[in-house]
Structures are given as C-alpha cells and as structure tokens.
Amino acid sequence: MALTQNPFPSRPPTADGAAPPPRRGMSFGLLMVYVAILAVNSGGNGILLPNVVSGLDEAGKIGNLAFVTTVAFIANIFAQPLAGALSDATRSRFGRRTPWMVGGALLTGGFLLGLPMAQSVLVVALVWLVVQVGVNAIQAAATAIVPDRYPASRRGNVSAMIGVGITIGNAVGAIVAGSTADQGFLPYAILSLLVLVIVGVFVIANRDESATGLPRERSSAKDFLRGFWISPRQHPDFAWAFGSRFLMVIGFYGAQTYGLYILRDYIGMSDAASNSFAATMGVVLLVGVLLSALGSGWLSDRVGRRKPFIVWSSVVMSIALAIPLLVPTTTGVLAYAFLLGLGFGVYISIDLALMTEVLPARPQGEGAGNAGRDLAILGLATTLPQAMSPSIAAGLVTLTGGYEVLFVAGIVFVMLGAVAVRPIRSVR
C-alpha cells in the first residue's frame, strides 16, 4: 500500500460521512484547556506537592517527594496512550473525545481537592496518581481533536495556540499555588474549578459529533498493544527526535521540580517568602518564554530550518542553569528563570514542528481513526521525563548532599538533547 506523507492521521468521518469542521474559537478553547492542564501540573508538582510532603515529614521530604512523583510516573506511562487509544475506539452519542475530557476533568478536580487532606505520604501518592490519570485523559482527548477537526493547512496555527496555552498554564499554576499556598484549601479549589469550568465550557461550546455511526475496528489484544510500538531501527529519525525531546525536558524540569526547596535550603528564604517568590519566578519565566516563542516558529518557517534553533535554545538554557551556581541569590534565580524561559520558548515553538516531520508515515487507510494513540505516543517524550525528573533529581541530591548538582545535570541534559538532533536526516 502507498504511504501517506501527512504526518498526522486523517480526520475520521462523522456518521453521515463528512469530517466535522472546527467551530469558531475552538483553537482558543484548546489553548484554555492546556492552560488548565498545565496549571494543575505546574502548581501541583512545583509548589503544592512539596508543601504537603514537607508538612508530613520535613526531614524526609526529598525522598518522599521522589516517591510520590515516581508513583505518578506509572500514570504518565500508561494513562495517556491508553486514554488516547480508548477514545479512538469510543462510540457514543457525545462523540469520541468528549466523554474522556469530561471524565478526566471530574477525576482531576475531585481528587485534587482531597490532596491536602491526605495524612500519609502513601495516600498523597495515590491521590496524585488519580489526578494524573485525569489530566492525561483530558490531554489525550484534547490533542487528538487537532487532527480530528482541522485540515493539515490549519494545524500549524492550532499547534502554536496549544504551545502558548502550555506556557501560560505553567505560569498560572505557579502564580495561583505560590500566592495562595498558605491559605488552606484555596489553591486546590481554584485549580479544581479552573479545570472543571474550562473543560465544561469547551465541550459545550464545541460539541462533538455523535460517533455511534462510526465503524468499529476489531483487533486482538496483541494487535492493540503492537500499535504503541514504533521501531527505532525502522524509524531512526523519530527515535533521535524522541530522545532529544526526552533529554531537553529532563534538563528543563529537573531543577524546577525542587525549586521550592532550592529557594529555602540553597538560597535561604523562609517558607512563606519562598511560596510568594515562586509565583514571581513563574511570571518571569512566562515573560521569557513568550518573548522568544512568538517569533521563533515564524522565523524557523521562513528559513526552512529546525535543528539550529534547537541547538541555540540548549545553549541559552545551559547559560541560565549556570547562573544559580555562580550567583546563588534571589537576583541570580530571577535571571535564571528569565533566560531559562527564553531558551525554552525557542524550543517549544520549534520542537512540535520537528516531531511531526519525523512522525512515521502509515499506510493509506491504516490508522485513520488512531489520532489519539499516535499523538499520545509522541506526548510520552514530554510526560515521561517530567515524571522521571523528581526521582533523578532526588537521587542526585541525596548522593551529593546539595542542590548544585541539579543545575550541573540540567546543563548536561539539555546539551545532550541538542546533540541528539544532529543525526536526524529528514529535517534541516
């Protein structure tokens, strides 16, 4: 069979055979969905979880936080690909994606409210695991909407909107959690409400077509599981791009995972001051990302090159990660946040385009309705390192007895991420 050159799967037909067009404002709606998703993850991982864990056992907070995030790592491995594949197979009158977005929002919002009530590290880990299952269900379904509803000629703009949503969401989570961390249930209630309202408004304003008339694909469990594997030998460009993103994300998130503890134990700030200062850092990081992201994607399209931008972003992030080692003060940390955002902004504006250009082509007619699965596999290059970063960071801090190693390791990871794009042949 002939191979399609379209890196995204084709849009599935509705019951009457026509592909459902995107509604006006849908791209902004997706931006907001990603704001909600990233706000939960950044606020939870960066501020709320460290506060809850240290409140239960101050002396063992490093190891305990690593345990909690490692348990969540399980959800990140399985939840998003499975949710994506199962949403592909869903046949309901509410469509394929809506049930998973709504169900994920209810899980996320409900269990997030229970997080501050947890009385042991084990319960914190289990509650956060369920929150992550919910977040991954939302993300898998929302990401699949892009190839479901948009023709190829319009996906670049939508991808850019999603990138902006990710950036804003990271900052919103830090600001909300950092400014209200000492006010009991308030940050948890705000983030829960944010997810429920945004997802609720999105599915109402962008009603999915009924999927009851779509054909049901029958396959064995073996075939189902086989669909998640993309051979590095057969698709080396995809493997190198996947590895590059994996390394870059670890480098970016490693020190940020323990950012609150760095402010307290490395910079010397009080608990209250570190919470509010974390919110300030979130704003500074956002400014850096927006300044570089808005123009990098456009410039990359103009010059027809991707890899030089990835290399440049790694250099800027490496400089940023070196600053706290040389200037361990609040001023140095703010400079670090701004430059880190500047470098990461270049990266996120280019990386999605690069990844879609190396995504393995599928035979015509094969996988036409598997957008959720295919894009969830791509998303693992982001979710896995985010989940692994705390455990790697905890091991490094425990071995060395200080936080300086996190900045050094971050420099190594982002530079290796830049090296990993060099062998890619199909992208300049």
TrEMBL record:
Region span, Disordered: 1-21
This protein's UniProt keywords: Membrane, Transmembrane, Transmembrane helix
InterPro entries assigned: MFS, MFS_dom, MFS_trans_sf, Sugar_transporter_CS
Transmembrane spans: 31-53, 65-86, 98-115, 121-146, 158-179, 185-205, 238-256, 276-297, 309-327, 333-354, 405-424
Topological category with respect to the lipid bilayer: Multi-pass membrane protein
Protein name as catalogued: MFS family permease
SUPFAM superfamilies for this protein: MFS general substrate transporter
Coiled coil start-end: none
GO molecular function terms listed in the Swiss-Prot or TrEMBL record: transmembrane transporter activity
Gene Ontology cellular component list: plasma membrane
Subcellular localization: Cell membrane
Domain (Major facilitator superfamily (MFS) profile): residue spans on this chain: 22-428
Keyword Transmembrane (UniProt): yes
PANTHER family tied to this protein: MAJOR FACILITATOR SUPERFAMILY (MFS) PROFILE DOMAIN-CONTAINING PROTEIN, PTHR23528
